[in-house]
Amino acid sequence: MRPLDAPRGRPTAWDASWPLRREPISAGRARRLVTEQLTDWAVGDLADTAELLVSELVTNALRHTRGPLRLNLQLRQGRLLCEVEDTESTGPVRGAVDPDAEGGRGTELIDLLADAWGSRRTATGKSVWFELRSGGRFPDVPETR
């Protein structure tokens, strides 16, 4: 089994994955990677939303987990799947947020902007994911699942 911080091979036509370091600049790096990859895949209309939501997932992982992180993107049958993997098995916890609080609204944002989202346990911890559908035309992407 490969650790999360091990590099994967080059991105395939419709899959991309990157290890992320445990440092504050990783959220910004994740945003740039998402934007560049979605532009390459010709689904740039999803970039703003995907960039915001990936930033939330990475920031939460940095704050609430230990160990390596990995960002994965997949484009399948008109759907963009974005996930952040970490080594903690505990899923996201939705807490009450004070109206004057400066943070703590990540799950609310994901609820509002993603077409679907959730978390699942993995062999190395968990994956928190969200899915977006493009309003534009997706490239002809084969279903591989």
From TrEMBL:
Highest taxon of the lineage: Bacteria
Domain Histidine kinase/HSP90-like ATPase residues, every copy: 24-130
InterPro entries the record matches: Anti-sigma-factor_SerPK, HATPase_C_sf, HATPase_dom
The keyword Endoplasmic reticulum belongs to this UniProt entry's keyword annotation: no
Spans annotated as Disordered: 86-105
Listed CDD domains: HATPase_RsbW-like
SUPFAM superfamilies registered for this protein in UniProt: ATPase domain of HSP90 chaperone/DNA topoisomerase II/histidine kinase
Transmembrane regions listed in the UniProt entry: none
UniProt GO molecular function: ATP binding; protein serine/threonine kinase activity
UniProt keyword annotations, A-Z: ATP-binding, Kinase, Nucleotide-binding, Serine/threonine-protein kinase, Transferase
One Pfam family recorded for the sequence: HATPase_c_2
The protein, known as: ATP-binding protein
Gene source species: Streptomyces monashensis
Lineage per the UniProt record: Bacteria, Bacillati, Actinomycetota, Actinomycetes, Kitasatosporales
